[in-house]
Amino acid sequence: MLQQTASAPTSGRYRLMERLGGGSTGEVYRAYDRLTGQYIALKRVSTSTKAPGWEETVDRRFAIAREFEMLASLRHPNIIGVLDYGFDLSDDKHPYFIMTLLEEPETLLEAARGQPTAVQVDLLLQLLQALAYVHRRGILHRDLKPGNVLVEKGVVKLLDFGLALSSDETPHAEVGGTLAYIAPEVLSGQAPSVVSDLYAVGVMAYEMFAGQHPFLMEDTTEFINNLLYTPVDTGLLLIDERLRPLLGGLLAKKAEERPPSALAAMAALCAATHIPLPQETVAIRESFLQAARFVGRERELAQLNAALESILQGGSGGIWLVTGESGVGKSRLLDEVRTRALVKGALVLRGDAYDGAGALDQVGRDIIRRLAVSASISPENASVLKQLVPDLGALMGSGTPLDIPDAPPLEREAARQRMYTAIANSFYTLEQPVLILVEDVHWARGISDILRLMQNVTRQRPVLIIAAYRDEEAPELAQQIPGAHFLRLERLPEAAIGELSRSMLGAIGQQPHVVDLLQRETEGNAFFLVEVVRALAEDAGRLDDIGTRTLPETVFAGGVRRIVERRLQRVPEARPLLERAAVAGRYLDMNLMQALAAHLGTAPYATLDDWLNDCANAAVLDLQDCCRWRFSHDKLREGLLETLRTPLPQLHAEVAAAFEAAYPEASEYAALLAEHWRAAGDSEKEGYYAAVGGGRA
Q1: pLDDT of res. 9
Q2: For 391-437, how does the pLDDT look when each residue is reduced to its tens digit (9 = 90+)?
Q3: How many Cβ atoms sit within 10 Å of the Cβ of residue 627?
Q4: What is the side-by-side strand order in the sheet with 38-45?
Q5: pLDDT tens digits, one per residue of 271-328
Q6: What is the model's pLDDT at position 200?
Q7: Gap between the Cα atoms of 341 and 465, Å rounded
Q8: Which is nearest to 366 in space by CA: 596, 620, 630?
Q9: Among the residues of 143-257, which ranges form H helices?
Q10: Pairing, β 14-22 against β 26-33
Q11: Cα separation, 653 vs 665, whole angstroms
């Protein structure tokens, strides 16, 4: 089923290539993702049982699941990103997870070797920025060492969170990590802490500047004795005189004598070397804003997790409709359920509707493409589903694309019912529990028909469907699906606002005047809450400076329109292409964007990738699941459509023409093209594509 070089296959989606290395909890391979066509890094449980340099035995299956759960909630430019989790096809079902691939990484020490002091200090500052983020999230890494701090093109990436713990777990933590980098108090049996992680940074900094470890490692007993009792002597080292007090502080035997936080260590490092404290980049600020702790939805998450647990135990599933106003946090709730489902062994399928013709087709296409690389679809169903997913044969083939015959033609209504039935039938043969997540179903006209049909599947198979939508856009949906469970998200209460504020801002976020402002300005809407903090940080210069200034009485007098304008003011050159992307939908079709860029040009950006990255830095666009660009929130797209600078009919015409250029033979876009040409006022082309779409239907 899978061409690969490892001893056991993973799933049909990933093909293993060469082994890249191993860490304390697993082995890492270069792999090919058949669904996206991209190369990624795949980490799975290793066969060894002990971490190098230390005698602790770890439960590697548990550790690798914990590592994915930790990383799935983190978004920081100096922390490795994770994308997916699963189990291989061996008898033992070894777990694995997918990370972004670093093509030519070096360890921290390799990247620093022979470099000027300024370059070495910059690498340490990047590492400390990553630690400041995870520590504010209440996470301790516990296994910091050069092999877990990689550098690619000057950018530090922290990885291997297999031994990481949340702050509420540390009082009961056993000794863990790599012996050469364990802090003295941890080795003595005390609970790990923030300053324990900083001790490991101190060891790496010593190795970076001095070219050797603070203590000889030949004799383990002597090394442990030196680690516990012998002060580190920096006076005889041939290093920059200014660095000696800093190294001495980081490597202090007593935890209370070290810098109290990663931010304090950064300040000390910059002061010692007379290097300015790094500016808070947009990417770093966004890591605190967009990936803050999940709060305020414990009851709702417990309900969905209970439904998930039912299918994991082999029971029947069901349909849950999650609703609430725009910006209230529906997507984040679904993300939390997704992470739990993946580590528990469920197959997770995800689809997203968008505003426009063909939304229901797009949802089905997303789900069936993911299903095709992980499960068997019968030839009869494949013939029908090929009309929805033109590359189905390539996805189902294990190397050579399958030749799937066309299904016999039927009248329109019969063909529609046959498609719905083929989708449903594809799930009846699955033994693996399945979680289907669908967002923005209020855009997908006819979604209630397919959900009612899938309801029969969920009553007989372990299939759970969670569909999220705005209740103001589809108030009748709950009545159209009798028997579905209904879950409405209200705005966050004041206590949750305070907790979320603390997650983003640290201790400053707990100050009463900060919480009062957030409560008054947002009334608990999560989207507005993040936007208010973002605006305050932009005005103050840094997130940590918000509480040191006099706060304004109000932040957004103009609501969403003002939010959009603030964002777009940061990327004025990106606006022409953004307007056309907004007309096309929330998710960016990259073939379409290439065609639009060829028509408009990308100046002053050198490439479309530069345009995408600039929009991402301004938090206008983001990248979902490694490969799908979208507007970071639909409110931004809608606000942009309300403030267009180009006439809307002209934009629809340009988008339609770009679709024709990108997909000259693809009849599955006929309904979408008919809608764009109608909005553009071209009745002749509207009629042509309406006829093509009708014939296809």
Answers
A1: 46
A2: 898 888 777 788 899 899 888 888 888 888 888 888 887 878 999 99
A3: 14
A4: 14-22, 26-33, 38-45, 95-99, 82-87
A5: 999 999 988 888 888 888 877 888 899 999 999 999 999 999 989 899 999 999 888 9
A6: 97
A7: 12
A8: 630
A9: 184-187, 194-210, 220-229, 244-250
A10: antiparallel
A11: 18
Tokens of 102: 């670093």
**What is the length of the chain?**
697
Q: Residue 326: what are its φ and ψ, rounded to 5°? A: -60, 135
Which residues are registered as beta bridge partners of 70? Answer: none
DSSP alpha helix (H) spans, 440-525: 447-460, 477-480, 494-505, 512-522
Average pLDDT taken over every residue of the chain:
86
What is the rounded distance in angstroms from the CA atom of residue 560 to the CA atom of residue 64?
41
Catalytic residue list contains 143:
yes
Confidence band, pLDDT 50/70/90 cuts, at residue 88:
confident
Helix (H) or strand (E) holding 213: none
Q: Distance between CA atoms of 140 and 136, rounded to whole angstroms?
A: 10
pTM listed for this prediction: 0.83
The Cα–Cα gap between 319 and 482 comes to 10
Cα distance between residue 74 and residue 95, in whole Å = 20
Of 206, 254, 260, 212, residue with least CA distance to 229: 254
Closest CA to 433 of 453, 460, 461, 452: 461
Give the residues across from 33 on adjacent strands. Answer: 14, 38
Residues 6+ apart with CB under 8 A from 578: 568, 571, 615, 620, 640
Catalytic residue among 143, 160, 355, 589: 143
The two three-digit tokens of residue 489, written as one number: 């998200």
